[in-house]
Amino acid sequence: xxxxxxxxxxxxxxxxxxxxxxxxxxxxxxxxxxxxxxxxxxxxxxxxxxxxxxxxxxxxxxxxxxxxxxxxxxxxxxxxxxxxxxxxxxxxxxxxxxxxxxxxxxxxxxxx
Length: 112
Hints:
There is one protein chain. With 112 residues, the protein is an alpha+beta fold. It folds into two domains: 1-43; 45-112, no CATH class. The chain contains four helices and four strands, in the order ααβαβββα. It has a four-stranded mixed sheet with strand order 2-1-3-4. The model has no long low-confidence stretch (mean pLDDT 93).
């Protein structure tokens, strides 16, 4: 990590040194490093799902709020998913904010 962000060159150098030197258990070390890099990448990306396309103003507002919560270097993708019926689901890493009609109907069904 450098300045709170994943240092790609540092990861490349580390992987290269591990492969070149092959210390005991290096495959397990590489597997763990891969897992940590994937977790960091997931933490820096957001997926915003909505039943209908979001207006440009709403997309801008969502981006601003996510940047305020998670930092300005967050990669955000907007996806249309009609099965949500209405509302919006946002996933950033392991954090999920689900305000969809589908989720509310499922909660209601489980309560019966």
